[in-house]
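Contributing new records

If you add data, match the layout below exactly. Sequence lines come first and carry their own label; structure lines follow with theirs. Keep one chain per record. Anything else will be rejected by the validation script.
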Amino acid sequence: MSNTTNRQRHIARHDRLIGRPGGRGGYTLLELLITMLVIALLSTLVGPTFVDVINRNRLQSELGGMYAMLSTARSEAVSRSVTVIACGSSDQSSCNSTSWENGWIIYADDGAGGGTADNGTRDGTELLLRVGQEASGSVTIRTRNFEFNGAADAGRIALTQDGFAQSRGSIVICDGVPAEAAALVVNLSGQARVAVDQDADGTLNLDDDSELTSCP
């Protein structure tokens, strides 16, 4: 084999490695720079939209979880003929928090095992019916306007043995932006509906028709 042939093969191999025109593989530096520029541009344009979709999906997921929690509490109250309490709980055992994003519990407030019925405190051997885990991301979940035994108490929602709520109120799910928040409105029948923007001004209306203008 001639030295010329060997040299040609070496050059062709080198061309393929560095991506010169005429080589069969690789990219030129200019092509790589253009590709990186296009990727950066697309990330700038599409990135925020993608994040918004993720945030909206997270809020809707938590909204569905709160709806299921209320339905369970109401069903258990009727089937057991006792008052059932839903409350924020960071230890998954007691009503110790008004920040429902840290977790929540549902229990039968029937005074079992030496406890006190209908006092809003899980004592004695009152049965724990359901436990909710911590919410994902930076989502906050708070109650508004609920009362318990005649006193304002945002940390508890009480469902009586006939399935009625002791008071109406709202559950607000936020991720820092009120205009993108979600909420449930609970009426005195104990049923919940998704809050809507009744006057089309860009903010949700809660149970008392007030507007959701801030997040925790």
